[in-house]
Design a protein that fits this description.
The chain is of the alpha+beta class. About 55% of the residues lie in helices and about 15% in strands.
Length: about 375
């Protein structure tokens, strides 16, 4: 297998995932309440064995899962991705006790995870976070402050929380903690957002944590965050590619059968060229995502740059493709409940979360100049 092609077994697995999404997951997604954790959907992802694969698969497999699910059921894709994002730090940096307690429950869909990095004043600039971890005894801290824009909050069962243990130290003074939702002093509220998946705020009022709750080592939490984001950024791109492909599929079907001006829409050169451009951009983004994921899996150089490029290109591409699809469908695509109306709402957020497009460009430039200096 190269970065530019998939093996027959991988293609068959993607087709199987799309079938499962249509038959088993989409009906459950339809019964969910917008803005709330759909625990039945999470449990079904666990029963199908997809959540356990989050901890046994590489980056490319994660991308194939996310792309395949997104093409059919974005709610299922997002539920799976949020389990991975919240629990990946436990899998890679947790203690044996932390892993034993939480990963089996995440894998079977019995526990909902969340990744709590962003704050009201520290979104894209993650190193500027201010949630304070004040020393409390010989091996403990009290967390005081806020988190905001946290997916699955306030309904998650545990949070991977990043807090400042050393003031004034920037990225070097951040520690990652595993914080169960029932800790005293931890409260939260839901936010009414454009995106249909749950997002909320968390308030920490002297929440107690100890050395047993640390993920990794003290003051090395920024590495935990970046390790997680380097894995998940290409897969955000895969989510975007899945949405772009769904929009392209719908547009091909619509323009092939829609009568207009004595023929069908596809007979109009202006339409055909737009569809060709949509396909070109979607395939380009897919190849960038696969290349970035393969680089991660093989330990190649330049993973942060490749991950940022994949996330940037794919999310911007999906925005373009879905917008073009809506335009070519006309007013019907804006009707509540239309697949493209749903995609139009879903496609906007990925250009912001896990590092906005502007942040990705900054990472790319930084890595390019770093390579120049190393020569």
């Amino acid at each position: 297998m190269t970065a530019f092609s998939l093996e027959p077994a991988q293609l068959a697995w993607c087709a199987e995932l799309r079938a499962l999404a249509a038959d088993r997951l989409r009906p459950l997604a339809g019964k969910g309440e917008p803005g709330r954790v759909n625990r039945a959907l999470v449990a079904e992802l666990g029963a199908l064995g997809l959540l356990s694969r989050l901890f046994t698969s590489g980056a490319l497999d994660l991308c194939l899962m996310r792309e395949s699910l997104a093409r059919v059921c974005t709610e299922a894709e997002t539920a799976l991705a949020l389990q991975g994002l919240g629990a990946h730090p436990v899998h890679t940096h947790g203690t044996a006790a932390q892993r034993a307690r939480w990963l089996p429950r995440v894998s079977d869909g019995g526990a909902v995870a969340a990744f709590a990095l962003s704050e009201p004043g520290a979104g894209s600039d993650a190193a500027a976070l201010a949630l304070a971890a004040h020393p409390d005894g010989p091996s403990g801290w009290r967390l005081t402050g806020e988190k905001c824009w946290i997916s699955n909050a306030p309904e998650a069962d545990f949070y991977t929380v990043f807090a400042r243990t050393t003031p004034g130290a920037g990225a070097r003074g951040v520690t990652a903690f595993l914080v169960p939702a029932d800790r005293p002093g931890l409260t939260g509220s839901a936010l009414d957002m454009l995106s249909p998946h749950p997002i909320g705020t968390l308030a920490f009022d002297a929440v107690p944590v100890t050395a047993d709750d640390v993920l990794g080592t003290v003051d090395a939490g920024f590495r935990v965050a970046m390790d997680t984001l380097n894995l998940f950024r290409p897969s955000v791109g895969a989510f975007a590619v899945g949405m772009a492909q769904a929009a392209l599929d719908a547009t091909l079907a619509h323009t092939a059968r829609r009568d207009a001006f004595g023929g069908t829409l596809k007979d109009l050169q202006s339409v055909a060229h737009q569809v060709a451009e949509m396909a070109l951009r979607t395939e380009s983004a897919r190849l960038m995502v696969y290349a970035a994921a393969t680089a991660y899996d093989t330990g190649a150089d330049g993973v942060p740059r490749r991950a940022a490029m994949a996330k940037l290109l794919a999310t911007e591409t999906a925005q373009y493709v879905v917008d073009r699809a809506v335009q070519l469908h006309g007013a019907r695509a804006l009707r509540r409940g239309h697949p493209l109306e749903h995609l139009y709402r879903e496609v906007r957020a990925p250009r912001i979360y896990e590092g906005a497009s502007e942040v990705q460009r900054g990472i790319i430039a930084k890595e390019l100049y770093k390579n120049l200096e190393d020569r």
